Every structure is written in C-alpha cells, then in structure tokens.
Amino acid sequence: MKNSEGRVNFGSRLGAILAAAGSAVGLGNVWRFPYETGNHGGAAFILIYVGLVFLFGLPIMIAEFTIGRRAKASTGEAYRVLAPGTQWKWVGYLGVLTGFLILGYYSVVSGWTLEYIYQALTGGLADKTPAGYIQMFDDFSAGSFRPLLWLAVFLFITHYVVAKGVKDGIERSAKILMPALFVLVVILACCSVSLPGAEKGISFLLKPDFSKVTADVFLGAMGQAFFSLSLGMGCLSTYASYFGPNTRLGATAMSVGLIDTFVAILSGLIIFPAAFAVGINPDAGPSLIFITLPNVFQQAFAGIPVMAVLCSVAFYVLLALAALTSTISLHEVSTAFLCEKFGFTRGRAATLVTSGCVIVGVVSSLSLGVWKHFTIGGLEIFSALDFLTAKIMLPTGAMLSAIFVGWVLDRKLVRDEVTNYGQLRGSYYPVYINVLRFVAPIGIAVIFLNELGLLG
Ligand code: PHE
C-alpha cells in the first residue's frame, strides 16, 4: 500500500503494532530484563521499571512516532525534513549510527541463540555439571569460528527480510514471528511455574522488598526501559514513517508498551521459578540464560530428558525470534536512510548495511576471545560498544527527541499528529506535552549523569 507521495505504508494497524512490538521485544526482554531484575532484588525493581515505562517511555515513544509519521522519512532524514537548515539533522544521523553499532554487537548475542538451539537439538546441553555449562559457554563465546558463523547466519536472515521490503518483509515477518513468540513464552512460563518449588521464584518476582531500592535501582530500571522499548535512536520513528493516517499514535504506543512489559515479566516467570526450583541464584548476571538456564532445564527434568530437550529448544527458539524482529528494525534504520539519502535501491542499501555490520560484529565477537587484550577505557570492544550505545547514545537520543517535539516542533503539528487531525480527542495531550518538555529531559539528564558517575 503506497500513500499519496508514493511511500510504502504498513498494510494494517495491527501490522504496524506488531512490527513496532517486534522491535521492542527482544534480547532486552528475555536476556537483559531477568538478569537486571535478579541483580536489583526482584519485584521492587519491576514496579519501578513499569512506572518508568509509562511515565517516560510512552511519551517519548509517541514523540518518536510523531517525528516519523509527520516527516514521512526514516530517522536519518526526518529531523532534516522537519527542521530544515538547522543542526537538528545531527540527531537523525546519531540515531543511524547508534542503530548500526547496536546491530553489530546485538547480532553476536543473537547468533549465540542459534548455537544453543543447535546444541539443544544435538544433545550438547545434556548431562553436564554446573562447571561444564560455564566451560561450554566460555569456550564457545571466546572461540573464533562458530560464533562468527552464527553471527553471519543471523545477519543473513535479517538481511533477507529487510531486503524484501516494508510490507512483504518487515510486516509479514512480524505477523508470523510475534504470535509464535507469544505462544512459546506463555507455554514456557506455564511449565516453569508448575515445577515443584517454583513458589519461591514467583514470590521473588511478585512480592516487592522496598528495602532493596536505592538510586541505582531507579537508574538501572530507566536504562532498561529505553533499551527494551527501542527508544533513543529512531527505530520506532523509522517504523512510524510507514504508519497510515489512521494509525492512532497513543493507542499504538500503549499496545507496544504493554506487549513489551508483558513479555519481560513472563520471561521472568520462565527463568526465576525454574532457577529457584533447582536452588540456583537469580543474580548470575548476563550469563543467566546461557549458563544457568540449560543447567536448570536439565535438573528440573532430570528423569524426563525429552522434556529437557523440548524446553531448551523452545526457549532458545523464543530468544532467536525475539532477537530477529529487533535486528530487522535496527537494520531498517540504516537501510532506509541509505535509500532516502543516496537514492540506493533497497537491495543495494541492505547489502551495504549488512556488510558493515558483519565487520562490527566480527570485531565485537573476536573481542571476547582472541582480541580480548584490545580495550577501550578498560572494556573490551564488545562491552565498550554496549556501554557507549546503551548508556550514552540512547539516553542522549531520547532526551533530544523529547526536546525536539516538546520545544522545537510547532504545537499545532504535534497536537494534529496525536489527535489524527482532530479525529481523536487526545485527552492525554496536556500531560504528554509537559512530560516531553520538562519531566523527561530532566529525568534523563539525572540518569545520564549518574550512569557516568558524575553525581557522586
Ligand atoms: N528493544 C530491543 C530489545 O529489547 C533492543 C533494541 C534497542 C532494538 C534499540 C532496537 C533499538 O532487545
């Protein structure tokens, strides 16, 4: 479906919601959220996280939607279109660069999910001691051949979908992958909570202990909210440039926020009850799902090996699907930019982006093994990229997009986008605009400075 200017749109409102939710739901929900929750003490972290998603996350998401749909251009060009002749164009370019760098290292972890599907299917996850699982993960992730192979496979699949285009590639894949992901996440959560001894994990997730709440918990929750909602680099703004005139920005943001939070909490419900049921600590950190979980599945289904295999395969397939809908959205930001800015065909633009990402991905993957000794500020390249993008570039981008919509764009234009030119009431507008103008920029500045250790 092309609009009057010949730009392709998503075919339906549901397609738009699923594509945006696909971007948001990713490794951030199934991998990062559970270990952040584990490290920050459980339910209290979740409550704060949910509060921040609704207070800051949704208004900034609507702001990104406004920028994309109004400009009818991907994020790299949108600021130039809306504020021609100003320096705001750099915010668009920053978004493209951020997305490109995230895609590079995110694809490395996405590739790991394929290795774990393969291992689960071929019995590689069976009958190991806890130390054996650690050894297996360390040997694999520090290796050169296999992680690079899976990285290439993952990027190739992403490339294939993006090259097919907005409707036939992105929208269609979201319509297939997202329902599959929901089914898997619900089945796995049901299996996990029905394990004997799961109650401890459930109460860890649902009974808040406020004595654990420190400033750090707030800040961790905020960073997680941006990463998980794909905010701060124009991913959702690029998707919004394909929204039709009847797509309701507020309702779409609410759906994406709810779906993203739902999947994150269900992922917690998969991981913690299972971990507690076999007496494993929930605060293992980033290795939680690659080291702890295979161990949990083996122990939980010690007498029924088929179940252990089925659960492991289902879990890593879930993770791969979640990662794929996010890598597609990250790839689209750069691909659409190259098409719009330089007039490349989609296929050519996608090839350039994929080739560039292979380089970033290879460097970040090898930095966990043979190139470990190259460090930037004490971090190897993989972690340096994660730090630079998630902790510096995303908050900066989110803050600038809030300021842009709150202070720079014409008020009438902002109201028109939120109300679909007066067709909707948009009764949340006064709260929304004040969050963008004051609450979000100040709030983000606080986390930002604190993350960098500048608030003591
Ligand atoms: N939101 C994705 C996740 O939770 C990650 C992502 C970040 C995707 C930024 C796009 C942009 O995994």
TrEMBL record:
UniProt xrefs under Pfam families: SNF
Q: Which is a Gene Ontology cellular component entry for this protein?
A: membrane
Q: Which residues cross the membrane?
A: 12-31, 43-67, 88-108, 148-166, 178-198, 218-244, 256-280, 300-328, 349-368, 388-409, 429-449
Taxonomically, the superkingdom here is Bacteria
Its topology with respect to the membrane?
Multi-pass membrane protein
* Keywords from the named record: Membrane, Symport, Transmembrane, Transmembrane helix, Transport
Q: Where does it mainly reside? A: membrane
What is its subcellular localisation? Membrane
Give a GO molecular function annotation for the protein: symporter activity
Keyword Membrane part of the UniProt annotation:
yes
Output the PANTHER family linked to this UniProt entry: TRANSPORTER
Give the protein family. Belongs to the sodium:neurotransmitter symporter (SNF) (TC 2.A.22) family.
| Name of the protein described by the UniProt record | Transporter
